[in-house]
Amino acid sequence: GETSIVTGSDGAIVNSAGDGESLALATELPAFAPAYPGARLRTQVSDGKTGGRGGLVVFETADPVEKVAAFYDARAQELGVKPGMVVNEKDSAVRIFAGGDGKDKAGGALLAISRSEKGLGTEIVITAGMADAHIRQMEKDKDAWRESANPIRLQ
Questions:
Q1: Are 111 and 95 in contact (CB under 8 A)?
Q2: 132: helix, coil or strand?
Q3: Considering the entire predicted model, what is its pTM?
Q4: Nearest-5° angle of CA 133, CA 137, CA 143?
Q5: Measuring CA to CA, which residue among 129, 110, 104 is closest to residue 52?
Q6: What are the phi and psi torsion angles at 122 (to 5°)?
Q7: How far apart are CA 141 and CA 9, in angstroms?
Q8: Tens digit of pLDDT for each residue in 89-99?
Q9: Residue-wise burial string across 38-77, b where 16 or more C-beta atoms lie within 10 A, e elsewhere
Q10: Contact indicator for 122, 68 with CB cutoff of 8 Å
Q11: Phi, psi of 95, rounded to the nearest 5 degrees
Q12: Given strand 40-46, what is the order of strands in its sheet?
């Protein structure tokens, strides 16, 4: 079954699906970073204050990393959205998008796509509603995305 946890005084809400189950998407994702077709929504984190705008979601799919990355690249290109940073490595890919009009307001997104730890599928982590200042800092420090992506392994 589904597990929900409210963490700390900030009211963050973590929802996790049971093995083989999928959550209902309650997080508003950017049009260029929608739920991956046919993927299972395993984890969803929101701050409990934004009414579903932004947060972190973790999807799983049997598709390879390259196919998932190509889907999101095509979607962004179709909508005229250019990533501020693109990383393609063996068994992983990252895309960072600034949001809004470049002013320091929430709206950006980070997509981290990687082979699952067991190697049986692909995990897609979308962090949406990121402040542009955070995104700009991540673009300057090309390995900063790794630090942001590490806490998402919510097993």
A1: yes
A2: helix
A3: 0.75
A4: 145
A5: 129
A6: -125, 135
A7: 30
A8: 989 999 988 76
A9: ebbbbbbbbbeeeeeebbbbbbbbebebeebbebbbebbe
A10: yes
A11: -130, 130
A12: 3-7, 12-16, 40-46, 55-61, 122-131, 106-115, 92-97, 85-89
